[in-house]
Automatic annotation (TrEMBL):
GO biological process terms, semicolon-separated: dicarboxylic acid transport
Annotated source species: Paraburkholderia rhizosphaerae
Localization annotation: Cell membrane
Transmembrane segments: 48-72, 84-106, 153-171, 192-214, 226-249, 314-335, 355-378
Name of the protein: Na+/H+-dicarboxylate symporter
Role, per record: Responsible for the transport of dicarboxylates such as succinate, fumarate, and malate from the periplasm across the membrane.
Length: 443
């Protein structure tokens, strides 16, 4: 309910920003005067962006460490876990690749014709100097304290991976208080992120008002095209996921899609993976997936297999690069995909995590983080589609892993009865399965 109110507040902020920007655009007697008025609106946006940057480092560290330590020693994970992670990796990479290819094909960002802000121009690594050598030497931190102080996401990721794997391997030897402290830190950062996101309507108001003050209402056409292009890209991703599922399950994949229509509708209407989770488990059981498989794979999928979010992250990042007329080579785009794949694992379950991942990745490639706020103006509409896509991807993944692990009953054309109790999501988000707490737009 709170997330629905936030979405409504963001839409209101966008509409007010459009109205304020239009009035200022009409009253400005010269382009210079319009830019001066836009600078005043940008102050509000800058405050919101600083709040976003404030939470990124501790959020990624605590989220990735708690997730990896929960998995534990890879030898103990078992075949199902390893197969699931393998599927998640392939699906995530395919999703990112689709987003990259279609973002280049549509090339919508250039229509916005924005100027790189002074703050964004110097942020992160210069695209001209970004190559394999610089990338490799940059990701290994000489000091984790320095990396966190400078908000350098890649060194933080590397340290977090080592820390999380080591903690998982030593779980039985470590005091429980240490493990619970890391998980508690992540819960706290989730709460702080939730507070920060309530400043989003103000940030959206300032960003939209500033752009329309300078450019007028013409940029709204680009927004409409962007939403349409993203939904078309999601349809392409659906086709790829169904084709992959058909390769393993055969024709029953179509029965599975029919059976998960209800959780898909719930996900679309609420933009919440958490709301759709219980019904998804139930329908997977009716399809023939044994609960011992679905209860293990599905929560894991909500942390590592957010296909709709992955596709959108790549699409949106390249849209921002195009909007500011910053050219990224194919090699730079490819490295960006890999960075997003890693970063997204550290913020699974964060409200509007796709925005957080994009904000963390842009500075690494010399892209202005200010572009993120422009996306927030329409994120509510895209959130519904990518959450639904996550439900489809996670359902297909659960059925495929069940097939591989002999945990799938032969499809007879009729739904199986519910022979076991179906778990429900706890009311307290902190006690929900990994990746599901505050899972809006985790997606």
């Amino acid at each position: 309910m709170k997330q629905n109110r936030l979405g409504l507040a963001i839409v209101v902020g966008m509409l007010l920003g459009i109205a304020a920007g239009y009035l200022c655009h009409q009253s400005a007697d010269s382009p210079a005067a319009a830019k001066a008025m836009a600078a005043n609106f940008s102050l509000v946006t800058d405050i919101f962006l600083r709040l976003i940057k404030m939470v990124i480092a501790p959020l990624v560290f605590s989220g990735l460490v708690s997730g990896l330590s929960a998995i534990g020693d890879p030898k103990v994970v078992g075949r199902a876990g390893l197969k699931a992670l393998g599927w998640f990796f392939c699906a995530s990479f395919a999703s990112l690749l689709i987003g990259m290819v279609l973002a280049n094909a549509f090339d919508l960002g250039h229509q916005m014709n924005l100027h790189v802000p002074a703050a964004g121009a110097s942020a992160g690594v210069s695209t001209a100097a970004f190559n394999l050598h610089n990338f490799v030497t940059h990701i290994v931190p000489s000091s984790i304290v320095e990396a966190m102080a400078n908000n350098e996401i890649l060194p933080i990721l590397v340290f977090s991976v080592f820390f999380g794997i080591a903690m998982g391997a030593m779980k039985d030897k470590l005091p429980p208080a240490l493990l619970s402290s890391i998980e508690g830190l992540f819960s706290i950062m989730l709460k702080i992120t939730g507070y920060v996101m309530w400043f989003a309507p103000l940030g959206v108001f300032g960003a939209v008002a500033a752009v329309i003050t300078v450019q007028g209402l013409g940029m709204l056409v680009t927004y409409g095209k962007f939403i349409g292009a993203v939904y078309f890209s999601m349809m392409v991703l659906w086709c790829v996921l169904l084709a992959a599922g058909y390769g393993v399950l055969g024709k029953p994949i179509f029965a599975l899609i029919r059976m998960i229509r209800e959780p898909m509708i719930i996900a679309f209407c609420t933009s919440s993976s958490e709301a759709a989770y219980p019904k998804t488990i139930e329908q997977l059981t009716r399809f023939g997936v044994k609960p011992r498989i679905s209860n293990f794979v599905l929560p894991l999928a909500y942390s590592f297999n957010l296909d709709g979010s992955m596709m959108y992250q790549a699409f949106a990042a390249l849209f921002i690069a195009q909007a500011y007329d910053i050219h990224l080579s194919f090699g730079q785009q490819f490295w960006m995909l890999l960075v997003m794949m890693l970063t997204s694992k550290g913020v699974a379950g964060v409200p509007r995590a796709a925005i957080v991942v994009i904000a963390a990745t842009l500075p690494l490639f010399g892209l202005p983080v200010e572009g993120v706020v422009l996306l927030l103006a329409i994120d509510q509409f895209i959130d519904m589609g990518r959450t639904t896509t996550n439900v489809v991807g996670n359902s297909v993944a659960s059925a495929v892993i069940a097939k591989w692990e002999n945990g799938l009953e032969p499809w007879t054309g009729h739904a199986y009865p519910l022979s076991e109790t179906i778990p429900s999501i706890p009311d307290d988000a902190a006690t929900a399965p990994a990746g599901l707490s505050a899972s809006r737009s985790s997606h």
